[in-house]
């Protein structure tokens, strides 16, 4: 898995479409041996798998497809000598998402991220990023209430300890 302190560089088009509580957990670029000028990038977020496909002359046109974890039926990795292929089956679509030409060495991490997110979504557990955002919002509200004098120092500290 990639280091959580390392910022993952997502294309600008993808950054614009991410939801407020959505975070990119991993990015995998298709090998240039498969697609020399415009390789696809697969971004794994805490809510979906996004396929970013530049095409046309030097990638001036782009296709973006997203696949939500709750719609995924199965996940399969086929490893070759150098490359790997990921196939994701969907419950509501007849076509599977096929991602080929991916570096074989990253497939264990890709599998772990996808499987953890599918399990989390099916269990109804919020993502850690969403949980942290909710806690931060609650702490800010507590600070404002304390600053306005609506709660005492003791009440503030007690509620803050409950949130942490």
Can you characterise this structure?
The chain has 164 residues and is α+β, with helices and mostly antiparallel strands. It folds into two domains: 12-125, Pleckstrin-homology domain (PH domain)/Phosphotyrosine-binding domain (PTB) (PH-domain like), CATH 2.30.29; 129-163. Helices cover 33% and strands 30% of the residues. It has four helices and seven strands; from the N terminus they run αβββββββααα. A hairpin with a 3-residue loop joins β5 (72-79) and β6 (83-90). α3 runs antiparallel to α4 (153-163). The two termini are 26 Å apart. The model is unreliable at 1-6 (pLDDT under 50).
Question: Any chance you could write out the topology, listing elements then pairs?
Answer:
Layout: H1 12-17, E1 24-29, E2 41-45, E3 48-55, E4 61-68, E5 72-79, E6 83-90, E7 97-103, H2 107-123, H3 128-147, H4 153-163
Antiparallel strand pairs: 1-2, 2-3, 3-4, 5-6, 6-7
Helix pairs in contact: 3-4
Features:
three-stranded antiparallel beta sheet; four-stranded antiparallel beta sheet; PH-domain like; alpha+beta
Distance between the termini: 26 Å
Shape: elongated
Number of strands: 7
How many domains? The number is 2
Trace the largest sheet across and list its strands. 1-2-3-4
User: Largest sheet, if any?
Assistant: 4 strands, antiparallel
Low-pLDDT parts are 1-6
CATH superfamily of the largest domain: Pleckstrin-homology domain (PH domain)/Phosphotyrosine-binding domain (PTB)
Beta fraction: 25-35%
- The first-level CATH class of the largest domain is given as Mainly Beta
Order of helices and strands: HEEEEEEEHHH
Q: How much is the radius of gyration in Å? A: 20 Å
Q: What is the second-level CATH architecture of the largest domain?
A: Roll
